[in-house]
């Protein structure tokens, strides 16, 4: 017969094992290689991740052009670097856009340029 103490220990071990297994399936994708604030193609570019409790994360890319037009690209579903929407603002007017192929291409372009800028381009001999 099991003593009450060994039952408690066994239950505690089961609980800890379950917590460990449960948390291993909740890994978040790390996009810190894109964290950036600087200039690309004469535009001010900022990328950052916003982490929330639970599984909700946002990846935000903000591009400000020389004429002060600012576009904010937002990936807030799936943490997959696929934008769900973008906002463009100019002269206090904000327009929200649904994702389309061209907008995603611009987002991808800036992510690629951020990586190139951060790691440096190999010099040609």
Short description:
It contains two helices and six strands; from the N terminus they run H-E-E-E-E-E-E-H. It has 125 residues and is an alpha+beta fold. The chain has one domain.
Can you walk me through this structure?
The chain has 125 residues and is of the alpha+beta class. It has one domain. The protein is 32% helix and 31% strand. It has two helices and six strands. The protein has helices spanning 4-24, 101-119; strands at residues 36-40, 43-51, 57-64, 70-75, 85-90, 93-97. The chain has a six-stranded antiparallel β-sheet with strand order 1-2-3-4-5-6, with helices on one face. The termini are far apart. Residues 21-25 have low confidence and may be disordered.
Strand order of the largest sheet: 1-2-3-4-5-6
Q: Which stretches are poorly predicted, pLDDT < 50 over at least 5 residues?
A: 21-25
Percent of residues in β-strands: 25-35%
Envelope shape: elongated
Number of extended strands: 6
Structural class: alpha+beta
Number of discrete domains: 1
Element-level helix/strand string: HEEEEEEH
Please tell me the overall pLDDT: 83
> So how many helices?
2
Largest sheet: 6 strands, antiparallel
The radius of gyration over CA amounts to 22 Å
Distance between the termini: 78 Å
- Share of residues in helices: 25-40%
Notable characteristics:
elongated, 6 strands, six-stranded antiparallel beta sheet, alpha+beta, 125 residues, 2 helices
Write the layout of secondary structure elements.
Elements: H1 4-24, E1 36-40, E2 43-51, E3 57-64, E4 70-75, E5 85-90, E6 93-97, H2 101-119
Antiparallel strand pairs: 1-2, 2-3, 3-4, 4-5, 5-6
